[in-house]
Automatic annotation (TrEMBL), chain A:
It is a multi-pass membrane protein. GO terms for biological process: cellular response to starvation. The keyword Cell membrane applies. Keywords: Cell membrane, Membrane, Transmembrane, Transmembrane helix. Residues 3-348, 366-514 form the CstA N-terminal domain. Belongs to the peptide transporter carbon starvation (CstA) (TC 2.A.114) family. Pfam families: CstA. This is Carbon starvation protein.
From TrEMBL, chain B:
This is DNA helicase. It comes from Tamaricihabitans halophyticus.
């Protein structure tokens, strides 16, 4: 089947989801009011609280939520065949991510644009704030660990991409400084900057950078040294103001996102590549089962708790009208689902030409997960070559796109983790540590560094996919907490919370199930690093279930008592 | 037809494109720069106004002359800091 057919079918389903289901949510569940004054107006300060056109705000929201995660998850999950991965992406986007992203935005707007962590404290109870901090701590630890591995693997596989990535830093800073100081329109300098970045691929091909540590068995491999260098870089980057380095790089990346999406759409359309992967893969004996692990392997792209942080952190402060929340929140989730669809197409239609070759690439779970990002890069490179770009140039281009996304996520992740560590220290009463940025940065760097350096693959270590699934569980728990906040709020408003409760229950059950399955596996394999980590996350999941149940019961009782007093 | 014909229309279209690009991609980074500038200004203001906040300021004499420059947007600042009024007695507002 041509990949474009699948893309069109999913496009129609996403359209129907937006047209009808989000309309139902807007009217019956969230009861949007076009005349209500939003915090962007009531608290307008010209900096954070600024009423913004809904199309512009959608662009801001989408570029904030989209990154490497909706690429890597589906690239691993197609190991079970494109059918389960695609079904989860489509159903998850329409019935879970849309509800979650849209709902988090609405609840935040109705509570003075407060963040989801503060809302958990207000809407559920004070313990929920501690729970939120702990979930986010593990989420960020695993995010930083997995993306360090992703970047290091791509640097090892594509040494031609190293120099362009290094050159991107001064290039981004230069564009930022030029636009800021001259106050001129940014379009032309940005276009020049992006063209220069892609021209630097030629330099990268002339001077590929390898570290020369080839010993595969020892500690000093290229991969491990890249991981150490990346964390050294993020340690420094997290200590300097965001506008010096992080923002200029993110600015370039927001353009790369649209360029990559354009290349995928055009490449698939022009090339008419066929899907060579099976709909359901006959996986080798001993492989992990797709049920329930699929639902934690694909988090971003189906539903991701990280989006609630963006929805309630920045987007809610800029919403011009309450009714814009439907377009910005729900359609933002659809955009993320489209990126996941692009990843599925790249890894099932673009990566290789025949089913036999695909079976070789996705021979077992270890090779499927370790090679996932490389497979996406190869797939996008093939789509780009459909447009006339040379294959070698296209491969480095695709690698740069993924590395840029992953690097920005790491930059942000380490910085956020620093704040979280300081906040946890404050909650724990360690005031001296809570005030030390160095302590926060060290914890933010050393813990995920240790996770990333633990051997991956082979009989002595665990595969990258298992670490990825643990990251997925923490992402899903964050989404669970946000959905619990939304469900409690909807119940307190005496509206039907079923549309929120269904994804909440499904997500929590699948996550706990996946954690238990992996826990048994870690115990059998005597994985004494992953076992306690999985156990801690499982405890957090159970804690979340208890808090959500208590809060929902109270909300129901409160609503029922209110109804009774109204009748009397 | 627009005065100037095709070149003028192309220039207008290019300017629209530049404005759209600016709003979509640049505005959020400019907002970040403003946020940083505000944070630094807030820190300076808090230091200069320490005594008004009830904290001893060992360099009050040296920072006294900065106060007139920081009074203009004092109202917006103390409201943002969660204080409805400012000073003792509450002279502002």
């Amino acid at each position: 089947m041509p990949a474009i057919v699948l893309a069109l079918v999913v496009g129609v389903l996403f359209y129907l989801g937006y047209r009808y289901y989000s309309n139902y949510l807007a009217r019956k569940v969230y009861a949007l009011d076009a005349s209500a004054a939003t915090p962007a107006h009531t608290m307008s300060d010209g900096v954070d609280f600024v009423p913004t056109n809904k199309h512009v705000l959608f662009g801001h929201h989408f570029t904030s939520i989209a990154g490497a995660a909706p690429i890597v998850g589906p690239a691993i999950a197609v190991f079970w065949g494109w059918g389960p991965a695609l079904l989860w992406v489509v159903a998850g986007t329409i019935f879970a991510a849309g509800v979650h992203d849209f709902g988090a935005l609405v609840v935040s707007v109705r509570h003075k644009a407060r963040s989801i962590g503060t809302l958990a404290n207000e809407v559920i109870n004070k313990r929920a704030r501690a729970l939120f901090l702990l979930i986010i701590f593990f989420l960020l630890t695993l995010v930083n660990a997995v993306f360090a591995v992703v970047i290091a693997n791509l640097f090892v596989a594509n040494p031609e991409a190293v120099l362009p990535m290094l050159l991107q830093i001064p290039l981004a800073i230069g564009i930022g400084q030029y636009v800021y100081r001259t106050r001129s329109a940014a379009l032309v300098p940005t276009l020049i900057g992006v063209v220069l970045l892609y021209c630097s691929i030629l330099l990268g091909q002339l001077w590929p950078i390898t570290l020369g540590f080839a010993a595969e068995d020892g500690f000093f491999t290229d991969r491990n040294i890249w991981v150490i260098l990346l964390f050294a870089y993020t340690f420094v980057a997290s200590r300097i103001p965001v506008w010096v380095l992080l923002q200029p790089r993110d600015y370039i990346n927001s353009h790369q996102l649209f360029i990559a999406l354009g290349v995928i759409v055009l490449g698939v359309t022009v090339g008419m590549d066929k899907i060579v992967a099976p709909a359901i893969n006959d996986t080798p004996e001993g492989s992990p089962s797709w049920f329930p692990l699929l639902f934690v392997t694909i988090a971003c792209g189906a539903i991701s708790g990280f989006h609630s942080l963006v929805s309630s952190g920045t987007t809610s402060k800029q919403l011009d009208k309450e009714t814009d929340a439907r377009y910005v929140g729900y359609f933002g989730a659809v955009g993320e689902g489209s990126l996941a669809l692009g990843s599925i197409l790249a890894c099932t239609a673009g990566v290789v030409a025949t089913t036999a070759d695909w079976n070789a690439v996705y021979a077992d779970f270890a090779s499927a997960s370790d090679g996932a990002t490389g497979n996406f890069v190869a797939g996008v490179a093939n789509f780009a070559s459909n447009l006339g770009v040379s294959a070698s140039l296209a491969t480095v281009f695709a690698a740069i796109v993924v590395i840029s996304f992953a690097a920005t996520t790491m930059d942000t992740g380490v910085r956020l983790q620093r704040y979280i560590v300081q906040e946890i220290a404050e909650v724990a009463g360690a005031r001296k540590l809570s005030r030390s940025a160095t302590f926060g940065s060290l914890v933010a760097v050393l813990v995920p560094l240790a996770m990333a350096l633990i051997p991956g693959g082979g009989k002595d270590g665990f595969t990258f996919g298992v670490l990825w699934q643990l990251f997925g569980t923490t992402n899903q728990l964050t989404a669970g907490l946000a959905l619990a906040v939304i469900a409690v709020w909807v119940t307190k408003q005496r509206r039907n919370p079923t549309a929120v409760l269904i994804p909440l229950v499904f997500l929590v059950v699948m996550t706990v199930w996946a954690l238990i399955v992996n826990l048994q596996e870690f115990l059998n394999q005597q994985e004494w690093v992953l076992f306690p980590l999985d156990l801690i996350i499982l405890v957090l999941a159970i804690w979340l279930i208890v808090e959500a149940a208590i809060a929902l019961r109270k909300a129901w009782q409160g609503a029922a008592e209110q109804d009774e007093s109204t009748v009397r | 037809m627009t005065k100037g014909g095709l070149p003028a229309r192309l220039r207008a279209a290019w300017r629209r494109l530049e404005r759209g690009h600016d709003q979509l991609f640049v505005a959020r980074w400019r907002q970040g720069a403003r946020r940083e500038a505000r944070r630094q200004q807030d820190t300076l203001r808090a230091l200069v106004m320490l005594e008004s906040l009830g904290v001893d300021n060992p360099v009050a004499y040296e920072t006294l002359e900065l106060i007139p420059y920081l009074v203009a947007d004092l109202h917006e600042w103390h409201q943002r800091m969660g204080q409805r009024g400012f000073g003792d007695p509450e002279v502002c507002c």
